[in-house]
Amino acid sequence: MSRKTGVSPRFRERFRGDVELTDLPDHALLGVIRIPGQHSASPWGLLARRFSYAIILLVVTALAVYVHKGGYSEEMSFIDSLYYAAVSLSTTGYGDIAPVTQSARLVNIFLITPLRVLFLMLLVGTTLSVLTEDSRKSLQIQRWRKNMRNHTIIIGFGTKGRSAVDALIADGLSPSKIVVIDSDPQALARAESEGLVAVNGNGTKSDVLKIAGVTRAKSVVVATSSDDTAVLVTLSVRELAPQVMIVASVRENENQHLLRQSGADSVVISSETAGRLLGLATVTPTVVEMMEDLLSPDEGFAVSERHITDDEVGANPRHLADIVLGVVRSGELYRIDSPEAETVEPGDRLLYIRYTTENFERPEA
């Protein structure tokens, strides 16, 4: 069922950029979309490195000419040798200095001519490398925008966003199916280094969300640092993608209903959850330790969800081998103590406690 948030055109206009990113060609999005694997030296660094190689070739040629300075039409100083090397390697060839002895001509044939070819390859290759690198990145962006489907978008790559990504990856989601939206260059660089597609922009703007493929996404995690921004992001996402699942984080409990009204399917109250854990830690610290264990997918125990097997249909979930916490039926969660969870029906999913194979081994029968 689609949701209507009643967002006015004036609201949309407020968060629209001067230039719509969706109207730009793919090559204009090189600074907006960062695909993992695009790490490369900057064009200026590439030019500087190859220019250094060209200078080395020039000096080597000048030394070779200076060693055979007696074989040329003019009396050669090192400056003359450097001059001759420069006009020879650049194919300028003024003709004012020319090799006249057999040895000098052999040096030109077997040393200076190959160096001239290498010198030209460096100059031409640098230009082609810069141009083809941008073309390759543009092609990657074009392919990604065309093929990305059923991915998860993380809006805000701070502490909450990174933790959400860690949980998704630990639960089996490929990093290539995660897209991060943030405006902090350091956060974007970190996301890219972790194999995530990074989009530079503000999550409240519709064109940034469209660039991230929100209309084709499976879910969106709103992990912004402030509650008001979370509300605006949720409104924007829900308007563009009525069917997408939105999970939002809010700091204060009093703002939870705003996220719900904005279209969030699930709201996590970060400050209240942390406060409860702090309170429990003063009374029963072992409970907090176990809760942290359950919330850490890579360590010890973890709360997970799975499909039921054919032989589990009709069984009481309390009697299954796994420790079942609840039954998910038609998108609704029923706790293990509810009447609806007395028996397992076809199509149900089980919310259960599992332990990771990395840290624990099942005892042999």
UniProtKB/TrEMBL annotation:
<keyword id="KW-0472">Membrane</keyword>
<dbReference type="InterPro" id="IPR013099">
    <property type="entry name" value="K_chnl_dom"/>
</dbReference>
<keyword id="KW-0812">Transmembrane</keyword>
<dbReference type="Pfam" id="PF07885">
    <property type="entry name" value="Ion_trans_2"/>
</dbReference>
<keyword id="KW-0813">Transport</keyword>
<feature type="domain" description="RCK N-terminal">
    <location>
        <begin position="149"/>
        <end position="269"/>
    </location>
</feature>
<dbReference type="InterPro" id="IPR003148">
    <property type="entry name" value="RCK_N"/>
</dbReference>
<dbReference type="InterPro" id="IPR050721">
    <property type="entry name" value="Trk_Ktr_HKT_K-transport"/>
</dbReference>
<dbReference type="InterPro" id="IPR036291">
    <property type="entry name" value="NAD(P)-bd_dom_sf"/>
</dbReference>
<dbReference type="Pfam" id="PF02254">
    <property type="entry name" value="TrkA_N"/>
</dbReference>
<protein>
    <submittedName>
        <fullName>Potassium channel family protein</fullName>
    </submittedName>
</protein>
<keyword id="KW-0407">Ion channel</keyword>
<keyword id="KW-1133">Transmembrane helix</keyword>
<feature type="transmembrane region" description="Helical">
    <location>
        <begin position="51"/>
        <end position="68"/>
    </location>
</feature>
<keyword id="KW-0406">Ion transport</keyword>
<dbReference type="GO" id="GO:0034220">
    <property type="term" value="P:monoatomic ion transmembrane transport"/>
</dbReference>
<feature type="transmembrane region" description="Helical">
    <location>
        <begin position="109"/>
        <end position="131"/>
    </location>
</feature>
